[in-house]
Amino acid sequence: MENDRLAIVYVANEDKELTLAIIYGQTIEDLCLKVCKSLGIGPVTRHLFALRNHYTKLWYPSAYRLEMKDKNKFDFRLRFKPSSLQRLKHVDVNAYDYYFQQARSDVMDNKVPDIVYERHKQELIGLGVSDMYRVMLEKRLPRETVESEYRKYIPRECIKRHAFFIKKPIHNALRKISGYDANYVKEQYLKQFECMAPNYPYEEYEALMDRGLQNPPAKVILRVNVDEIKYCETLATPWTTLCAIEDLCFVSIRQDNTVEISRKNGIPSYLKFSKNALLMSFVSALDGYYRLAVKWTFNLCGEVVTPSLERLHKLKCHGPVGQEFSYTKLQQKRANKPGSYLVRESETEYNVYYLDACNKEGKLFSKRIEERTVSDDFIITGVPGRYNTLAQCVLSFQDSEGQSYLSECLPPSEYDKSSLLLCAPESAVSEVAADEEIVASVLETGPRCVPQNQLEIYKPFLRTGRIQQYSPTTLHRAIWRLTKGKKLEVALKILKQEEETNYTKEFLELAGKWSQLRSGTLVRGVTLQEFRNADAMKKYYKSGKRLTIPNGCPMEVYRLMLECWGDSSGSRKQPQAIMRDINQILYQVYNSRRSHAYATAFPKLFSSEMKKFEQDNSDSSDNKSLNSESRSNSFSTDNTSLRWNDTDDSMQGLINTNEDSTEDFSAYLGWLSSARRDSEGCSISQNNIPNMNCIERSTQVLRIGHPSDLGEV
Fold first, then answer.
1. How far, CA to CA in Å, does 403 sit from each of 76, 360, 409?
2. 685 CB contacts (<8 Å, ≥6 apart)?
3. Taking the chain, what is the end-to-end CA distance rounded to the nearest angstrom?
4. Whole-model pTM over 0.90
5. Which of 291, 339, 318, 352 is nearest to 37 (CA)?
6. Pairing mode, strands 486-495 and 432-433
7. Is 330 strand, coil or helix?
8. Separation CA 100–CA 112 (nearest Å)
9. What stretch of H or E contains 488?
């Protein structure tokens, strides 16, 4: 074919490079998948690996599409470091071996900045001797043969400085080693390497950081590793923690190479990069670590997605989670209810799926389904026939009357804690938000009494609207601990003690009505007045009907609303994804036309600094990423993250129902709709744009995860 070309992929093993056929228009993930298959790296650990540009050393995001202008030379590397090498070895020995070869290669080529010859001279020679002994065991070579080729195993820096004195120490050391196997030698090699370079591998980038209108932007070095994002202004200053990986919420980007990093707590951080390739490399690093450590099914940035993950979402299919996880989930979520099932990728084979289901007697069984890419169809092992889709495979399981009995699919959830979280600390046990299934089971039981020891209630929220209306209730923010390790953030209305005599009956009736409603996630101002009762509302939505687009509502926002009205079986948008997407809309359109310390990534003060920044970068190759694989860090770090429940103000931001803010947000939607039709050069009066503080509060109102919030909106 005309679009077929060859790509050269440099690898860390003895092959040195692979030549693979590519088709322009394919994603970089497709090419990475080919490399993994050729090296025997399995479906579980393949997500630890990525491709970077051989010349610029910048990483490609998974969705990057290969173009004819590309030079088609790539480095294949383990990019995301797992939390435990022993765990990596247990899951995929080929991936473990490749990591060993990668670390060994970097030591040989002096590409590990943490390792300094003057400080690690003896350790470097020791690593070289260990590597020679490993080769003797694996290839069954005599000691004399390996000694004669010592330059292949001793780091080049050692040979360069001790060319005439190094042979004898090597000879003496090798004679003393005996009685070990190759796996043990590898393990000891990596343990010593970890002590010398504990931060390996990490990535570094240069950017400008917004420090507010009162201060000029700062040129900083950003460092990303498995635990956190850090920065420093110069190499002589201490490193400061910008955000821990687990505290990331979402990332928004703009066409002018600016990035907004939103955390669970605290003010967002704004960064500007000199080139788009730098920005994409940086954001893909954050996204990769977040997926592998916190939520495997979630992309931090709506503009930097994982193609294979999007496909799994459409198929309502899990990743390669394994049979044990699948059976446990069916038991915990559906109690092995007949007809419930789960589809997952195989953890050992590519293009293979497993259907784990409960038959009519409630007994678990599994069926292997193979996807044939050549004929573009599916076959079920042991069952004649071909199927066009996975859905057809599911429908083929029928009872004696010819009726399909698999009726309820358990989709993947962002709260799944499976073996796919390879970068998550093994011993980390923390509370996570309750998933949709747990919330559904609570709501199905109707009104219920909650023991007080399950609730953590914060101070009442004081309204600050222009018209103070008396209410017999007070509004509180609370945490409801449903089960061990599972929590639910709720808005709590409490009847005032002095009004118990007058309003108890009405209060209990209202609570009963609201308990019948299921969770809606983004609401356009629908009130109960539009429906006579909750049953009518439920019937309206179950019939597939949806409210029409409101006047002045931008199409991007309405599309998001439709996704939030999706089926609760799996297509419904989750709260974090809603915040990510609505923030991307706000950041791209609203903030791009506004000068404000937090409304735009870089105010006018950035212009002169940015020109200088770009001039500094123009003389280099396509990047100014340091992209170091490691560097020793002896500086202390300051954790700048704030706990979300430290102050009363944080509570106000989450459940703010101030009428001013909702009016301003409605005004903004109208402005956004008209702004879309304006050309880039038209000016917009500052007076016509709502105050940014109100917009920030309004976007907080959109964090509606559960029915208790619905009344406040």
1. 49, 12, 16
2. none
3. 56
4. no
5. 352
6. parallel
7. helix
8. 14
9. strand 486-495
**pLDDT for 185-237, tens place per residue?**
999 999 999 999 999 999 999 999 987 767 788 899 999 999 999 999 877 78
Mean pLDDT of 549-566: 82
Structure tokens at 325: 């996880």
| Contact criterion met (CB below 8 Å) for 650 and 700 | no
CA nearest to 442, candidates 491, 515, 494: 515
**CB neighbour list of residue 544: distance below 8 Å, 6 or more residues apart:** none
The answer to whether the CB of 685 falls within 8 A of the CB of 469 is no
User: Which SS3 state, helix, strand or coil, does residue 475 take?
Assistant: strand
Phi first, then psi: what are they for 124, rounded to 5°? -65, -45
Please identify which residue in the block is written with the tokens 């953030």: 489
Helix, strand, or coil here: 441? helix
Neighbours of 180 (CB within 10 A): 14
Closest Cα partner for 669 from 571, 575, 549? Answer: 549
- Contact between 225 and 290 under an 8 Å Cβ cutoff? The reply is no
Q: How far is CA 225 from CA 35, 38, 466, 630, in A?
A: 24, 28, 48, 9
Question: Cα–Cα distance between 4 and 10 in angstroms, integer?
Answer: 20
Beta bridge partners of 219: 208
Q: Which amino acid is at 155?
A: P
**Residue with tokens 């050269």, as numbered in its chain:** 8
Calculate ∠ Cα 557-558-564, nearest 5°: 95
- Over residues 436-450, the mean pLDDT reads 66
pLDDT digits (tens, 9 = 90+) for 80-136: 999 999 999 999 999 999 999 999 999 988 899 888 888 888 888 888 889 889 999
Phi, psi torsion values for 499, nearest 5 degrees: -105, 10
Phi-psi label, residue 520: left if phi above 0, alpha if psi -120 to 50, beta otherwise: beta
51 within 8 A of 60, measured Cβ to Cβ: yes
**Domains assigned to the chain:** 4-96 (3.10.20.90), 116-196 (no CATH), 317-409 (3.30.505.10)
Q: Is 171 helix (H, G, I), strand (E, B) or coil?
A: helix
How far is CA 66 from its chain centroid? 23
Sheet holding 473-483, edge to edge: 432-433, 486-495, 473-483, 455-460
What are the strands, taking DSSP E only, across 47-123? 49-53, 73-78
Residue type, 410: L
DSSP 523-582: --S--GGGSSSHHHHHHHHHTT--PPPPTT--HHHHHHHHHHTS-TTTTSPPHHHHHHHH
C-alpha dist (Å) from residue 139 to 134, 135, 152: 8, 6, 15
pLDDT band of 589, cuts 50, 70, 90: low
Q: Give the whole-angstrom CA distance, residue 477 versus residue 464.
A: 16
Instruction: Report which residue type is found at 573.
Output: K
Angle at 58 between CA 54 and CA 61, to 5 degrees: 110
Using CA atoms, how far residue 539 sits from 102, 525, 536, 546, in Å, is 59, 19, 5, 11
The 10 Å CB-count burial string (b at 16+, else e) for 406-436 is beebbbbbbbbebbbbbbbeeeeeeeebbbb
Tokens representing residue 581 in the block: 């997407």
For residue 256, give the nearest of 526, 613, 660 by alpha carbon: 613
Tally: H helices and E strands in the chain? 22, 20
Region label for 221, one of left (φ > 0), alpha (ψ between -120 and 50) or beta (otherwise): beta
One-letter amino acid for residue 602 of the chain: F
**Among residues 200, 206, 121, 105, which one has the least CA distance to residue 165?**
121
- Helix, strand, coil shares of the chain as percentages rounded to 5? 40, 20, 40
